[in-house]
């Protein structure tokens, strides 16, 4: 698995959804279909993006939020009234591969392991959303590639900020 780390910028036109963490797989799947169906012609080359609030492990934390949207490589001139524009910027560790939903947890576990082995931590600020980006790829069996991104806060940043 080819894990990479770099400074990244994401502009995502999206809608916000929420739900119970135990029900996230079904809620997210329905929300992604709902988002795509809200367009008369969903662009074939669009990068469908899922931005998820990471589960923080609190005993009482049952609900979370996520955004479903389209990634733009430059800020659009206008955003429809029912959409939000999210701007995320910072260091990310990520992996990209042909889409295979059975491997999704493996990607996240591998990235988590890399973070721990390289003395980094998750960002906990509002930009700390984990991302799944779905890129069109006609040569992939599923027709898509997936990129999983986790925002980083390096240990040396922690020392500088304290």
TrEMBL record:
Protein name: Bacterial transcription activator, effector binding domain
InterPro entries listed in its UniProt record: Reg_factor_effector_dom_sf
Keyword annotations from UniProtKB, A to Z: Plasmid
Domain of life: Bacteria
């Amino acid at each position: 698995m080819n894990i990479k780390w770099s400074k990244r910028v994401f502009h995502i036109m999206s809608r916000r959804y929420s739900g119970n963490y135990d029900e996230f797989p079904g809620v997210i799947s329905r929300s992604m279909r709902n988002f795509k169906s809200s367009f008369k012609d969903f662009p074939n080359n669009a990068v469908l993006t899922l931005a998820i609030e990471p589960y923080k492990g609190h005993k009482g934390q049952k609900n979370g939020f996520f955004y479903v949207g389209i990634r733009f490589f430059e800020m659009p001139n206008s955003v429809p009234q029912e959409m939000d524009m999210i701007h995320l910027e910072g260091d990310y560790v990520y992996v990209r591969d042909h889409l295979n939903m059975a491997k999704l947890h493996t990607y996240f576990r591998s990235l988590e392991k890399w973070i721990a082995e390289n003395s980094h931590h998750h960002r906990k600020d509002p930009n700390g959303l984990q991302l799944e980006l779905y890129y069109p790829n006609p040569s992939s069996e599923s027709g898509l590639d997936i990129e999983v991104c986790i925002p980083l806060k390096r240990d040396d940043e922690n020392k500088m900020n304290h």
